[in-house]
Amino acid sequence: MFFAGCTSATALNYDVNATADDGSCIEPGCADAPLNWANCYDSGETAGTLFVGNTPADVATLSFNAGTIEVDWDFITFYDGSDNTAAVIAGPLEGDLTGLVVQST
């Protein structure tokens, strides 16, 4: 069975189930090393979190090591800007988001 994902065991988003590398590996120790972040939310919450680079040219990348959004009740949407009036990158999403990688433009 073919399953694409990060196959580097040293990567933060290593996927033990991956049989083919998809180029998504995030290796620690690089410039601006990834930040491990967790978010717990209340049902129906509309609060947001803003991720930005050091310069306007930086690409923000979010990689879900593990996480589930309750199906049929809660959703998450990623916008390519500072608020929910910007273009939608992904979403609304629900269910198991493990392995999802979202990048800004």
Write the layout of secondary structure elements.
Elements: E1 4-5, E2 20-21, E3 61-63, E4 68-69, E5 76-79, E6 88-93, E7 95-96, E8 101-103
Parallel strand pairs: 1-2
Antiparallel strand pairs: 3-8, 4-7, 5-6
Global geometry: globular
Q: How many whole angstroms does the radius of gyration measure?
A: 15 Å
Major sheet characteristics: 2 strands, parallel
Q: What is the chain-wise order of helices and strands?
A: EEEEEEEE
- What percentage of residues falls in helices of 4 or more residues? under 10%
Q: Tell me the domain tally.
A: 2
Q: So how many helices? A: 0
What is the end-to-end distance?
32 Å
Strand percentage: 15-25%
Secondary-structure content class: mainly beta
Q: For the residues shown, what is the average pLDDT?
A: 81
Side by side, the strands of the main sheet go 1-2
Poorly predicted runs? none
Q: How many runs of DSSP E, i.e. beta strands? A: 8
Considering the chains and any ligands shown, give keywords for the structure.
105 residues, mainly beta, 2 domains, two-stranded parallel ribbon, two-stranded antiparallel sheet, 0% helix, globular
Can you walk me through this structure?
- The chain is 0% helix and 23% strand.
- The protein is mostly beta strands.
- The chain folds into 2 domains: 1-29, no CATH class; 35-105, no CATH class.
- It has a two-stranded parallel ribbon with strand order 1-2. A two-stranded antiparallel ribbon has the order 3-8. A two-stranded antiparallel ribbon has the order 4-7.
- The radius of gyration is 15 Å and the shape is globular.
